[in-house]
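User: Can you predict the 3D structure for this chain?
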Amino acid sequence: MIRINNIKVPLSFDFGQLHEFCIQKLGIEKKQIRSVRLAKKSVDARKKSDVHFTISLDIVAENESKLLKRIKGAVKQEKYSYKVVKLTAEPEKRPVIVGFGPAGMFAALVLAEAGAKPVVLERGGDVDSRSEAVELFRQKGILDTENNVQFGEGGAGTFSDGKLTTGIRDVRLGYVFERLVEFGAPDEILYLAKPHIGTDKLKITVKNLREYVQSLGGNIIFNAKFCGYETIIDNISSVKYIKNGTEYSLSTDNLILATGHSARDVFEMLHRKNVSLSQKNFSVGVRIEHLRTDIDKAMYGDFAGHSALKAADYKLAVHLPDGRTLYTFCMCPGGYVMAASSEENRLAVNGMSCFARDAENSNSALLVGVGSDDYGSEHPLAGMYFQRDLEEKAFIAGGSDYRAPAVTVGEFLGKTACGDFGKVTPSYMPGVKHCSPDEYLPDFVCESLRLGLMEMGKKIHGFDDNDAVLTGIESRSSSPVRINRNEDLQSLSVRGLFPCGEGAGYAGGIVSAAVDGIKCAEAVIAKLRG
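Assistant: Here is the predicted structure, written as structure tokens:
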């Protein structure tokens, strides 16, 4: 197979005619071509007068060696190969996974296909009951601290945008993408340069994955809160959890801990047990919202609204005189700012889009990195306590009823007087209270926001528009704690404990978390095989 990269095609290109394109434009004889597949598709909008697609094609053909020499941009392409290693016998003690987000789901999938029949403990509910709890919080401000945007089937990524962009390179990536499609994700994630599933389709996907794991003998227990474990000579011997007020114990030698970045009670429990933990840098800031049509116009120029183009996205970073960096993160075109709290009297927001990305506003996190110097302590949980403190301040700033503090960019930058919102209506529910980030964010973060917004406005026209809205607090971009592990992926402190995914500090999104879940499952399989 050969891959031909960097092929420029117009927005009107008919992707159903790839064979004909290879014959006419690339000069490949029809009889030579065995198959053609779209391998990559991206929008090139660097020149607003010439917005087009750049594609890559995977072609299986006769005399590929000659085509490699003749066609510019052609390279030899090997198809990825990943196979789950099977166990020769069912383990005496079933491995346990805590958490059913991307890391836990793919750990469960691989262990189930290996024949290990894993048991999964998820503190939240299944995706249907979870959706009901999330909507109740959005509509009435009634928070379920165990079943929300952070906790439940699918993890925090379920109520985001389902973005699958990643900077890692790993043979397991193909497995992740193809299995997601198998379970209900759109086929286009296999070739889009910036793939996303969307919350609406992701709910279906995670449910199908769960049912498949169960069909292989896996057991997923919802509303089961992990509360501890026992050891024998520093080796995991059992796991404890609470369900419906009753404590249960599971005997196991292998525990994959994939609890996500918001399970603060787990971090505290591990610290009490003297498990090796360390501080981890993370970021805090706000969500910025613009009209989707304004962002489309800024990114696509006169091509905005073209039927072949979806809602525009962006990615920005500016380095500031004080050495800090302001950057955008988790950009949600045509989406909503979501109520993402998981603890009483603390506020957090996130972004979400459905597959169509057709909501009125587009939003993104605007973040500033924080670290040990900002925490003011060397305690391994200092970042988590710093995070909590800011969320408490944001809760109070919003009116102490889970409304979010929000303000226009114009007012925040001192360009307009205090007043009502303009053309951009805040999408956050259960509502917002007029309030500046100065009321809940550190001075250095606010200063970075002010300086950085004006610089970003130079890169994307209208980014610092007076009517754009800033809603806070965005505080859960990543884990503030790392659960330290060895090269064999087991805890430095407890054998048989496998810290996993974003919550353990080893991933930064859906895909990298899924890959880390696969790695931990492989490590468990290797241990079981001896």
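The longest helix spans residues 510-529. The radius of gyration is 24 Å.
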